[in-house]
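Sequence, structure tokens passed on for absentees:
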Amino acid sequence: MTDAKDEKTGAKKPTRKKTTPKDQAPHETEWELRLYVAGHTSKSIAALNNLRQICEQHLAGKYKIEVVDLLENPQLAKGDEIVALPTLVRRLPEPIRKIIGSLSDTEKVLVGLQLRPREEA
């Protein structure tokens, strides 16, 4: 907050600093997530279900999930340098982050997405 003067009284009044997406904490911005899968395999379905559950619990109403099936569009793997499936790519907020696997370990996913700090051993 910064102080500004009231025009009528001359007294200082608090004003709020305008925030930009870079100023906001990651959980306050809209998240763009892209899940790369290979068809409707059990791992792909599990990854999508796990991702939806994590997003609803930790990002309710502040996320978009795009599912990219590389069996249908293999050329799309090149843009995000996908080398294994399923792979989750956090496109926004920056920086881009990638998590490979079924996303079944919620704690690792939260740390990987930077929703929770890594615990020191």
The first strand starts at residue 2 and ends at 5.
